[in-house]
Amino acid sequence: MFGLFKRKPKIATLASLVDFIDAQSAFVVQKGIYEYSRARAGHYSKVLFREPGFLSAVEEARWKAFPLGLAMIAEVVDSALRRNTPAVGGATAAVEAATLEAFDRYPVPLSLGDAAWRAARDALVVKLAHLTLHAPKRAFDVSEPYAQAYFDLMPIYEKLRRPDFPTLRNYLRVQLCNIYDEFLARLDIPALSAEIAQAEPHAVALASND
Questions:
Q1: Burial of residue 30 (number of CB atoms within 10 Å: 0-12, 13-18, 19+)
Q2: Which member of 35, 87, 106, 127 has the greatest number of CB atoms within 10 A?
Q3: Residues pairing with 11 in the sheet
Q4: 38 vs 119, 147, 149, CA distance in Å?
């Protein structure tokens, strides 16, 4: 119980940056899937969440959504670093490398298979390569290219979820704004900047190899 009152650790190292991107990506996509499904099922949610077929659909949805979450959180983190540490070179390369490390922590999900998981990683690499093609975005705007793809993964019959896209889009907007604020609150700029500067050649090489 006392752990509830502990301050969350500072993001001061590249390892902690990977942990943050990983945890927040999983949180934002899974929370949306579970809460939306419960809301749509209403009083029948307890029954629905005991159905093997539905649980399989949820498992598939959350793994398909995870790379989308990684792409969104990476852009939130990259925008925060570029806005608040403009003198730090290699920040985007470090974010790219950290995001791919977060992806590579996980074995191939049984619900997707090897080919689909490799394709998801390849698509993530492309998304990360686009980070420097535009100015840092507001956290509120980061989800715009991903919201429809995320909504389409909801494990609810398509006709039942048609009117709900604005709700899911707003959910993503709010969550990413909160994650941006949390990242800045926990960011130890001098410590992380020093690690990025020290690891810059390796980070750049890793990102370019992918």
A1: middle
A2: 127
A3: 187
A4: 30, 19, 20
